[in-house]
Structures are given as C-alpha cells and as structure tokens.
Specification:
The complex is a heterodimer of chains A (337) and B (286). In chain A, a hairpin with a 2-residue loop joins β1 and β2. With 337 residues, chain A is mainly alpha-helical. In chain A, strands 1-2 form a two-stranded antiparallel ribbon. Chain B has 286 residues and is mostly helical. Chain B is built from 14 helices and two strands. In chain B, strands 1-2 form a two-stranded antiparallel sheet. The two termini of chain B are 33 Å apart. The relative contact order of chain B is 0.13. Classes of the chains: A mainly alpha (337), B mainly alpha (286).
C-alpha cells in the first residue's frame, strides 16, 4: 500500500498547533519505551559482558571493595583482562556445539518449513469444499504454546510407548511378510536419544508448529497475484507446473525472502521445545545458543559470560540477516522488494 | 477457470486429509492421555477410549479441585500478564502507527524519516531476547520487579510493540483519509477526528494486534522462566516444571496443557480472519 497522502500530512513547521502536539505525542511513548527497554539494556548488556558479575556479586568487585576501590566488577580497559569473557568464548567447545546446532536448526527448519508451507499454500489456493475450515484447522499449531508442542512431541516420538514408534513396529511386521524385503528390517528410531535424530526431531517439532505461518503468508501472496496473468499463461497453453515455475514462484520471491528471514530469525531463538524434550541432551547434542545462554546465566550464575555470548549471538544475527538481505537484493529487483 | 482434472482433485484431497491428520493427531493424543490411567499412558500406546483403555477423570479432578489453587494461580498470572501487555501494546502501537502513517517525521541527526523510524522499530522484534535477559534480571532485582506481574507486562510490551506499530501503520495507510479530511473541514480538531472516525474504523486492525499480542504473551516461556520464581509464574514455565516431580506424569501434563492451549486456540479460531489479516500485513511489509 502506498504511503497515505493528503493535504493533512504535515511538513516540518506546518499544521496547526494541535497537529504538531499530536504528531509528537503519538510517536514519542513508543520511541521512549523502546529506548528504555531495548537500547538501554542492550548497551548495559554490552557493559556486563566486560565484567565478571555472577550470581551473588562479582569476585573482582569484592576484591575491589575490600581494597577500597570502586567495586564495579569491571575488568578494566586492559584488553587482555576486559576481553576475558570474549576470549573464553572462542575456546568454549560447548558453545561451538550449541552454535552448530542452532545453524542446523535454522537451515533445516527453514528449508522444511518453506517447502511444505509452499506446497500447502498451493493446495489451499485451489477451490475445494470446506476450504476455509481446512485453513482454520491448519492454523491451530501456530497458536499452541511451544512448551506444550515440546511435551506433545515427546509423547509422540517416544521410542517405546509413542504412537509413531508403534506405527513403525507395525510397519516392520507388515513388511517382513513381503518376500523380497525379508525379515531383517529394523524401523526402531532413537528419536530423542541419538545425536543426529534428536536434532532432527527438534526441527520436526518446530516445523509442525510453524509450517502454518509459512503457508499463511505464501497463500496471501498467491492470492495477491492478479488472475489475468494466469489467464494469459493458460491461453498460451502452459501446464500447471510451468505456471508455477514461471509465474507463481518468481512472483512470490520477494515475499518468500521476507518469510524465510522472519522464520530464520525466530528459529535462531529456539529454546522452549528443547528444554522440555531433551533438555539439551544427549550430552549437549541438541543445545541451542539461547539455551546455552540461559544455562550459563541461571544454572551456572555467570552473568558476565552469558552477556558476552548473547552479544556474540547478536553480532551473528545482524551479520547473517544483512548478508541475506544483501543477497536477495541482488536477485530481486529493488522495486519489487 | 479451467476444470481441474480428476487426478489433481484427488491429490488435493489427499494432501488436505493427510495434513489435517498430522495437525490434529497430536491434539487427539494430548486429549486422550489426560484421561488415561498411569498404566495406560506408560506402556504400549492406547488409542481409542472405551475400546483400548478405560478413561478416567481423576487427573482432571486432581488439577481442577485438589490442586486448583496452584493451577488457577498460574492461569490467573498468564491472564493478567497477557491482558496487561496486550492493552499497552495496542494503545502505544496504534498511536505510533497513526503517527507514522499520517505525519512526516524527520530526525536531522540520523537523517531518519518515517520509513527509517518504522524499520528501527520492527528491527527491535528480531533481536534475540537472550541479549536483554541479563540486564533485565539485574535491573528487576534492584527495582523490585522480579516475580511481579508488572515486571513481565513491561517485558512483553517491549516485544509486542514492534509488531503492533508495524501492523497498525499499515492499517492506517490503507484507510482513506477523506473521512478525516471532511471532518476537519467541518471544524473537528485532528484529535477529535482521530478518536471519532479513525479509531472506530480501525477496529479490525486493533483486534488483530490484540490477538497476536495476547497469543504471544500467553505462550512466551524464556522471560517468564527467568524473571519469575513463585508468585508470577505463567503457564508455560509452570507446565514445563511438571517434569521434575516424581518423574514425568504425562496424564497431569496433558490435562494442564489442554487447559493452557484450549483458551488461546478457541480465541484464535473465533477471530481467525483478523489474525490472518494482521500477520499478512506484517509479513508483506516486514
């Protein structure tokens, strides 16, 4: 939608006194709230990341207090000291595992969710009976608490008493009767207990919840494509697949880039589902970055180090989203985006 | 439109039925588990009540009567906190959205115009919450906000505002300005034109912002976990905590989970049109 314009729009210094007051009064609370609750904590967090503040105070601060110094726990401007948290971060193997896991979650999750979301959107874009009811049903997981998604997933994927394992056991029995396949088939899957499977299960649970989001947005994008474009293609004798490849998909690209970015940033913060399913295990195989920060702060009580990790995370997020935006700008014309 | 072939019609129905099953089966499982006796829930999977297993209402009884004070406590906390932050987000978000839609701002120092301000606001939504959690914890202890409703309302408002501003700005951009103009010609002040004309017309936008904020606050986990410990615990951490006592008691967790998701889902479904509109507005421009 174009920026609304009317003769009411006020340039700097124009408009009645009322207008000018309203202009300021309407925006300033939000700006103030965001500055107070977002920018200020952000800077403070940066400060904390250079201290050794822990639960129950900072060791450096206690030494400083005892010797009559200021007692802030600030590690000083000496780089070797103040960057201690950041130095530790580089050598923390558990952190690197968490980082790798998070990237796996983002990459796999976004891919699965985009592909299936697009497929479902294509289906819902067709006319069929009870379409609006079906759309409503498909949206339900999005409104479910992630904690509940995690618990439910844990029941579903339980390798012994879960219904999925049960189904696979039955499949084993059926397939064993097929002569060529034979009887030595094993469909036991360690959904939550084996490293690679556990990560994949996390992705599946996140996808179950968020495919509807992809579907919804892509569907809206499809419905915004004018009908006459399709008509023209059909007159030219294009098949449905050609129409999808040459029209629907390219016209959805800008929107796709946006949802992929949104979803990627959201998966980056994944924690709830993992906490209630594997708790980060086996070992730290499924731990995400957010979860590691939470553990560092709450379980180990090391606020300074947790702040340093969260800052590194922030830098990563900014770098990757900038790269991603830059990349799509090259492929999608500016005016479309 | 061209008539679809029989094969693709079949394919559509197959996908629809298959995916409906994937979506609904876990809820079915959750619902039935809450009526299973412990033995039925922990051994081989039981699917159909009265056929596979004899349902029992004792877990619901336990949660709704014997432990009602605890359950209702976190339920009430969730309700208060979600409503509070939703109210603030709608209020502040619609104001800022209107401002960004109808006035021209220019901040000389950064050469920021409306679009830059709007982008700055939405970008706040995408910062990892983990970055803010440490200063929030430290500040909340000092300010006495830890484990209070006000504390979580403030924190959630911060996360709800960006979406609220974004959706409302878009909504106001789509509202024709003619009505406002004519009201002003008739001598109404701008302020009066806002609350007499614009506000009633923007009800759908306000509703979608309210639902989204409410669902987000209701489902949020990390902040509630870190900033509360007893008095103000909301449902998600309360449910998550069930797994430590006496092993995982699936039947209680399932009942609690039903209690937590049924209201939001009903609420969301009743107003599904609005959510769709809000989300689409947010994403199309986001």
């Amino acid at each position: 939608m174009a920026q609304a314009s009317s003769d009411l729009t006020i340039e700097e210094g124009q408009g009645t006194r009322d207008d000018r007051i309203m202009k300021r009064v309407f925006l300033s609370p939000t700006v103030f709230v965001l500055l107070a609750l977002s920018i200020f904590p952000l800077l403070w967090s940066l400060g904390i990341s250079f201290t050794d503040i822990q639960r129950g105070g900072s060791t450096t601060a206690r030494v400083e207090e005892a010797t009559g110094e200021t007692g802030t726990g600030f590690l000083g401007l000496d780089w070797s000291l103040s960057a201690r948290n950041y130095d530790r971060l580089l050598h923390d193997s558990r952190l690197w595992i968490a980082a790798r896991n998070t990237f796996i979650y983002v990459f796999l999750g976004v891919t699965i969710q985009y592909v299936i979301g697009l497929l479902l959107a294509l289906v819902l874009n067709q006319q069929f009976r009870m379409r609006s009811l079906v759309r409503v049903i498909f949206l339900i997981p999005m409104m479910t608490t992630p904690v509940v998604v995690g618990y439910t997933g844990r029941m579903m994927f339980d390798s012994f008493k879960g219904p999925i394992a049960d189904l696979l056991r039955h499949a084993e029995v059926w397939w064993a009767q097929v002569p060529v396949i034979g009887s030595d088939i094993n469909l036991y899957v360690p959904w939550m207990t084996e490293t690679k499977w556990a990560r994949f299960t996390m992705v599946l649970m996140d996808s179950w919840q968020w495919i509807p989001f992809m579907m919804l947005i892509l569907l809206a994008g499809m419905q915004a494509i004018p009908d006459d474009v399709y008509e023209a293609a059909r007159v030219d004798g294009a098949s449905s697949f050609q129409i999808f490849r040459r029209i629907t998909f390219p016209m959805l690209l800008p929107l796709s880039a946006t949802v992929i970015l949104i979803r990627g940033l959201e998966i980056f913060k994944i924690i709830d589902v993992i906490v209630v399913t594997t708790g980060g295990g086996p070992g730290s195989a499924t731990e995400s970055l957010t979860m590691y920060i939470y553990k560092t702060a709450l379980t180990f009580g090391n606020y300074g180090y947790a702040a340093a990790i969260s800052f590194a995370l922030l830098v990563l997020v900014v770098i990757f989203s900038t790269l991603f935006l830059g990349l799509i700008r090259r492929f999608i014309p500016r005016d479309q985006y | 439109m061209k008539r679809r072939s029989r094969r693709s019609t079949l394919l559509i129905y197959f996908v629809v039925i298959f995916w409906s099953f994937i979506v609904l089966f876990p809820y079915y499982w959750l619902a039935t588990t809450s009526f299973k006796k412990p033995l039925d829930a922990t051994r081989f999977p039981k699917y159909v009540p009265f056929y596979d297993f004899q349902p029992t209402t004792e877990h619901w009884d336990y949660i709704l009567t014997q432990r009602w004070d605890k359950t209702s406590g976190s339920f009430r906390n969730s309700l208060i906190i979600a409503s509070g932050s939703t109210f603030l987000a709608v209020l502040l978000g619609s104001m800022a959205g209107y401002g960004l839609s109808r006035f021209k701002y220019y901040w000389k120092r950064l050469r920021w115009r409306n679009d830059n301000i709007a982008f700055w606001i939405i970008s706040q939504r995408f910062l990892p919450p983990a970055v803010f959690i440490i200063p929030f914890m430290i500040a909340y202890v000092d300010l006495g906000l830890i484990d209070t409703h006000a504390g979580l309302i403030i924190a959630y408002t911060m996360f709800n505002i960006p979406f609220a501003v974004w959706i409302m700005r878009d909504f106001f951009n789509g509202l024709p300005t003619d009505l406002e103009d004519s009201a002003r010609v008739d001598g109404a002040t701008r302020w009066k034109a806002f609350y007499r004309i614009v506000l009633p017309l923007s009800a759908p936008g306000l509703v979608s912002v309210a639902i989204l904020s409410f669902i987000f606050s209701w489902n949020e986990y990390l902040y509630s976990l870190m900033l509360t410990n007893a008095e103000a615990v909301t449902l998600p951490p309360f449910i998550a905590a069930q797994n430590t006592q006496r092993g995982v008691e699936w039947w209680y967790i399932s009942a609690l989970a039903m209690l937590a998701i049924v209201p939001v889902i009903l609420f969301g479904l009743a107003l599904e049109r609005f959510i769709t509109r809000g989300l689409v507005a947010g994403a199309l421009k986001g």
